[in-house]
Amino acid sequence: MDLEQRLEELLGVEKFEPPEELRAEANWSDPGIYEEAAADPEAWWLAQAKELLDWDVEPSQSLDDSNPPFYKWFADGRLNASAQCLDRHVEAGNGDRVAFHWRGEEGEERDLTYADLHRDVQRFANALKDLGVEKGDVVGIYLPMIPEVVVAMLACARIGAPHNVVFGGFSAEAVAERMDFSEAKALITVDGARRKGKTAPIKPQVDEHMANHHALEKIVVVRHTGIECPMSEGRDVFYDEAMAAADPECPAEPMEAEHPLYILYTSGSTAKPKGILHTTGGYMTGVTATHRYVFDLKPDSDVYWCAADVGWVTGHSYIVYGPLSNGATSVMWEGAPDYPHKGIWWEVVERYKATILYAAPTAIRTFIKWGADIPAEHDLSSLRLLGSVGEPINPKAWLWYREVIGGGRCPIVDTWWQTETGGIMISPLPGLTATKPGSATVPFPGVEASVVDERDGEPIEEGQGLLVLERPWPSMLRGLYKEDDRFIETYFSRFGNERYLVGDAARRDSDGYFWVIGRIDDVVNVSGHRLSTAEVESAIVAHPDVAEAAVIGESDEDTGQAICAFVTLRGGKDESEELVEGIRGTVAERIGKFARPKRIVWADDLPKTRSGKIMRRLLRDIAEGRALGDVTTLRDPDVMKELESKIAEEQAQEG
Question: Which portions of the chain are predicted below pLDDT 50?
Fold first, then answer.
């Protein structure tokens, strides 16, 4: 039986039970954990906080809901996030354990132990103090995927300076905007950044856009690529020189549980970026618990790889704070998934014998397009668990991931959460939950979620509506930085201060499983039928010749909106009218005739950010003839030029 036949056969399987071996050895294997957490969530979370973290002052109280929606957790406790991630492991005799296997895109390798990180973080914390950074000062971080980004984050946490990390793929202009919003006192950046064999000068670009940033006093520059860069006397200092001049010991300062740990700005694709604020105690409780139990982590034996970027919340929670708090050994990869070749991910898995892989559906669909023969060239037998993050995953991609990468033996934890939630909210527990391809399954213990009617907010036991979180949770955002009114308006104005509006549409099935469909604004209304773009995309990629698809709504005189699909074909497949009808037929079969795309645009690739998210906003812009906004954050800006040319050719033929 070939792979395509195998996947079609598996599409008929409703549930996949946890492997017996995993169930027997899982960190959580008693289903009573859900009932225990639901009976008294506040007491349950307090117990988790005390069990998983080492507090300088142990909290006696759990949730403070006296001023909703400005909730507080463990407010009378004190701890330091840097000490949770480093000191306690070193003191326990695990300083020689590898914290990160770092792999540079040109093949360089560095292994950093917990003792190495502990040493470097203490020195850099003192270096920041020497530069005038104090508790409460915001520090910007604009670095690629190199170990120094982790050192910088934990050094900030050590002295109580909230960090504001900006994804390395953003333009320097976007960095300056985020530094202005947060009034950052210092910025840590790099001489140059490498991407697919090319080096981009970063420091000169930063200088160009920081000239009018009045709050910024110091810029620290990491020498990563060795290229020359301008340095302003009195303001700029090289990272290595600052480290050499700093004292080697810096005790971690106990912080109030509600002391700000970091600010992380959303991309701002449709509006002014939102500064998501996370604090120390609740966030560390949430990410430590979810990382340990969702991934069934065994620190003594697992090698964990979250293939995200530290510049996004996935990297904050599941590359840095969650894994290090749990004493995990992780992989950190600097480069792109197709450089120096399309099998590099699998080479990395094989090289470090990774046991857990956490990746985005967009990456998985890209690998499908490249073909199963590429991962087949590598030994992936070390993998025991796979994770999905960032967006809903369509069933066929879920099954391909399971069969081709996981060898049919690895359970998949399809996780739903947000920058705002801080950590995973809905996910299977690998030793407990029967999984369904495409479903995030059920909320994590201690989390209460519902699907509600968009008109009156009434819960829907089975069917589609809006996803909401019904009660506070420890790792939730504490607000939008310096924008309290916007915080309330964005998340709590629709259903009240006790119910958090997620912004996603979802449905619940007869088993109570959650199927997150996509953003509320990613909905197409065709003749009164409200269709999730993700749902239509999932149907399109079910066609055997399709590798990837992105769907948008276009204005239509007859139906209000019509579906336009940008479709990437598998290698060797030819564009044809017959294929158009085949795709439309597949959608009709899986959803209904009303859901068939009215227009299909063939695309060699789709516009994606460097983290892998498809920018549907840009597709809407070119489809409707609007001027494009900033495309500098795209993995390949030339994709938009090619698509614009195709649209122009179509219009010329029609005209």
Answer: 268-270
